[in-house]
Amino acid sequence: MNQTIITQVLPCDPTSISFSDSNGDSTPIISSEETLASLKTAVSDLVSLNVPVVFPTETVYGLAAPALISSAVSQIFTTKGRPADNPLIVHVSSPEMLKSILPSSFVIPSSYNLLMQAFWPGPLTLLFPATPQIPSIITASRDTVAIRMPSHPVARALIQMCNTPLAAPSANTSGSPSPTKAEHVLHNLFGKVRVILDGGPCDVGLESTVVDGLSSDGAIRVLRPGGVTVEDMERVLAVGGVTPKILVHRRDFRDEGLENAPTTPGMKYRHYSPSIPVVLLLTSIPPENQTALSLPETFSIILSSYPPNSPVKIGLLTPSDSPLSSLPSRLKRYAEVELNWDYFPLGTVDEPSLTAQRLFDGLLTLERNGVDLIIVEGVEEAREGLAVMNRVRKAAGEVHWVAVDEPLSQFDAR
């Protein structure tokens, strides 16, 4: 008989944690007794019991286990229902911990040194050669391992107190939107995990950028866009006198072998999808092989599967200054279908970092509010918008190009 798991949410105040050096090499200084007690409970579960613990990072909440213990890591896959061929990211708290799991003969590339100096600790994951001490369950039996150093004080303190690297994907059922608040985790994994460390909302809100700079051509390949933008990496490398090509997967290159046997999470399977349909509306100029439909034509398609004279509750995620943000106040009924709206603004068009921070929270909030479908407006694929669109495209079951020059007037006669 399976033993019942009692889930505890333990508060951790990030502002009560400090380090005597910027790299996190030292023992964390924790001024809050409550936070210290919460961290000690989590460390005991991880190190003594070898069971997974949920912890906050600056990107999303993670489900952690000691990275060098296969039996502990396997519980991550069981808890999430994660496919075995989907690799994990290893989290370290210091340069010394990083060196301890790298091959002794490996020379860190100059591009990596520049990126680590600029973005570690932070939302950047780098691929390194894997050593035998890294369990194959983490790497999906590939010869590389993805590693990052998180900047969230609770995450850094937890790893340092465990004195061992932690493997951690997002703390959610595999395929669903990543949690950015402890309450998201509690709703999704209640009764499946013992401890959730509540360190408040995640600042970035999307997973880390994953970079492979190990190829012989010297190029920087962005396998997953995330919290560190391509533009920021280009700037840092240029200032450092290193100017490799930065290639973004699916935008600048395709690799069928890599997609079938990925070296990093987020590449092979459908991800970030709530349990209800997600529709992506693209309002930019379509490519030559696509035609933008009017909003009435688009809504006819979206609502075609719903019976007439029955209410449909639509969740809407758009920038707050988008023309589409006015739809809930004007479009109450269409084609004999009553429309009830639940609007979750994503910040303004010129705030892609805020859009990134709010995206997963919006998807999870609207799902919990009981909407029947979620409509997401696409954003420009620049800076954090590149990562936003990477996630939305994977979450959406439908994608439509729409013309929104006069969105409200198109509905006035209906």
From TrEMBL:
GO process terms (BP): regulation of translational fidelity; tRNA processing
Primary location group: cytoplasm
Keyword Calcium annotated: no
Protein name as annotated: Threonylcarbamoyl-AMP synthase
Residue numbers binding L-threonine: H91, R148, A168, S208
The protein's Enzyme Commission number: 2.7.7.87
GO cellular component terms listed in the entry, alphabetical order: cytoplasm
NCBIfam families linked to this entry: L-threonylcarbamoyladenylate synthase
PROSITE patterns: YRDC
Acyltransferase is among the record's keywords: no
Domain YrdC-like: 36-228
Annotated residues for binding of ATP: T59, R82, N86, T144, S170, S178, R224, Y272
Catalytic activity: L-threonine + hydrogencarbonate + ATP = L-threonylcarbamoyladenylate + diphosphate + H2O
Native organism: Clathrus columnatus
Enzyme class: transferase
PANTHER family in the record: SUA5, THREONYLCARBAMOYL-AMP SYNTHASE
Function: Required for the formation of a threonylcarbamoyl group on adenosine at position 37 (t(6)A37) in tRNAs that read codons beginning with adenine.
Pfam families: Sua5_C (PF03481), Sua5_yciO_yrdC (PF01300)
Source taxon at top rank: Eukaryota
UniProt entry keywords in alphabetical sequence: ATP-binding, Cytoplasm, Nucleotide-binding, Nucleotidyltransferase, Transferase, tRNA processing
GO molecular function, one term: double-stranded RNA binding
Similarity-based family: Belongs to the SUA5 family.
